[in-house]
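Because discrete structure vocabularies remain unfamiliar, we turn briefly to a single example record, giving the amino acid sequence and backbone structure tokens:
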Amino acid sequence: MASNKISVTMTKSRFGRLPRHQACLKGLGLRKINQTVVVLNTPENRGMINKVSYMLKFEEV
């Protein structure tokens, strides 16, 4: 059974990135490097995580 929540940590800076990638980080609620948020495991959040996966570390909670 899939978990309902995902823990997401931003590992790289958002500066100098594409505007759409910055918008994905904002949509996930990430503002600072090494900040961790817990988001729901929905297709919308999964899409944002997949788009900027090179800047994130994530795991199911």
Observations:
- The beta strands are 5-10, 36-40, 56-60.
